[in-house]
């Protein structure tokens, strides 16, 4: 694929997987949400979005920057953040804490 590929980092390929993670992590019925349902409507506050970011890191084996947290507003945006990280060459993590926890020593 060329640099100007229309498939570039829109996250489409990750939407179903992110939705499954969201439903499992936050005990949400998948029939009640779609990829554009705001996390706030699901009761997912900023602390729970940190948990989602960590879960995505663990499940996909990549490091994501905590600065991306504000972009996680729905399933589609979470999928896009993941796709951009993968496209940018996010390196698989070593076992242990998610990258942003190691860097920021959050508990």
Automatic annotation (TrEMBL):
All copies of domain Carrier, residue ranges: 12-86
Pfam family, one: PP-binding
The name this protein goes by in its record: Acyl carrier protein
Organism per entry: Amycolatopsis keratiniphila
């Amino acid at each position: 694929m060329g640099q100007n590929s229309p498939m570039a980092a829109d996250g489409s390929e990750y939407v179903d997987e992110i939705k499954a993670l969201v439903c499992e992590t936050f005990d949400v019925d998948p029939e009640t949400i779609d990829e554009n349902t705001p996390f706030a409507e699901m009761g997912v506050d900023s602390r729970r979005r940190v948990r989602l970011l960590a879960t995505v890191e663990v499940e996909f084996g990549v490091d994501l920057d905590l600065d991306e947290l504000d972009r996680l507003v729905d399933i589609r945006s979470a999928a896009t953040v993941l796709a951009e990280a993968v496209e940018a060459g996010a390196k698989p993590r070593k076992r242990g804490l998610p990258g942003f926890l190691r860097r920021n020593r959050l508990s």
